[in-house]
Amino acid sequence: MNIEEFINETKKLGIDVTGEQLEKLEIYCNFLLEYNSHTNLTAIKNREEVYLKHFYDSLTLVKSIDLTSIENLLDIGTGAGFPGMVLKIFFPNLQIYLVDSNNKKTKFLNELKDKLNVDKVEVINARIENITSRFINSIDVVTARAVTNLPVLVELALPLVKVNKYFIAMKGNAQDELENSEYAITYLGGKIEDVKEFDLPHDAGKRMLIAIQKTQKSELNKLRPYEKIIKKPLQK
Ligand code: SAM
Q1: Which residues have a Cβ under 8 Å from the Cβ of 156 and sit 6 or more positions away?
Q2: Does ligand 1 have an atom closer than 6 angstroms to the CB of 149?
Q3: Which of 54, 80, 112, 164 is the most exposed place for a label (fewest CB within 10 A)?
Q4: Spatial CA neighbour of 188 closest among 217, 168, 166
């Protein structure tokens, strides 16, 4: 996807890209490709793919949620900042938490943050299950793209969400995972609010956005330890 296509496709998402945002994306793309030549951050190695499969794909989250009216967003397993850092560029109002357990990726993100000169971005090098107590019931939108299977992901993510707010999983084709996680979602005090399915431009693949609304407050002492979540995912 070239820049012109990027601008046209994001317009269809309801986003009018500004010159400043394009400049920031250029800095991001250049730094990502340069860093990736010595440190493995992403399998995507050319500009046009970065704009399509990382930048544009990250922005498709707006199909599910209006990000102008929320305060904070936490991105689990953000990798090289997808979708969290891209969303920060387009929604500077947000306090963003970028969480990844991989030290190489969080080091990259801290350097990127300085280059982009963005505020209200906290890069956290941790496994999400180890920071539940800090974020429990406090986040408007928790998201995760291409991170573990949905029944496990829901059990890690939903406790962090404020009551009435959302966990939105960004997946490829995940119909089976969705069916397998219905029990977990209800058990954890959530409900499937909306599922969006679409194709990326250029036949670059199917996408699913699964928005889960939290209906009940989580209690720290009722959450299962990570070992149990992994060993025996919640299922009927
Ligand atoms: N979200 C990014 C993207 O779409 O390009 C990265 C996806 S990558 C396939 C999965 C990332 O999740 C990795 O960077 C990995 O380090 C991170 N990860 C996996 N399990 C995690 C956990 N429990 N807590 C925090 N990060 C985790």
Answers
A1: 76, 128, 129, 132, 148, 226, 229
A2: no
A3: 164
A4: 217
Residue nearest to atom 14 of ligand 1 (CA): 79
| CB of residue 86 inside a 6 A radius of ligand 1 | no
Residue carrying the six token digits 């962090």: 160
Cβ(171)–Cβ(141) under 8 Å? no
24 CB under 6 A from ligand 1?
no
Our CA angle for 213, 17, 100, nearest 5°, is 50
- Look at the alpha carbons of 62, 64, 69, 75 in this order and tell me if their dihedral is positive or negative: negative
Composition of the chain by helix, strand, coil, percent to 5:
45, 20, 30
Residue with tokens 């977990």: 184
pTM beyond 0.85: yes
**Contact indicator for 234, 189 with CB cutoff of 8 Å:** no
Short-list 29, 27, 28, 6, CA closest to 17: 6
List b or e across 224-233, with b for residues whose CB sees 16 or more CB atoms inside 10 angstroms: eebeebeeeb
Do 47 and 27 form a contact (C-beta atoms < 8 A)? no
Q: What are the tens digits of pLDDT across the range 182-195?
A: 999 999 999 999 99
Model confidence over 22-77: pLDDT tens digits?
999 999 999 999 999 999 999 998 999 999 999 999 999 999 999 999 999 999 99
- Distance from residue 53's CA to the centre of ligand 1 (Å): 16
CA distances from 100 to 28, 54, 88, 107, 108 (A): 18, 17, 16, 10, 11
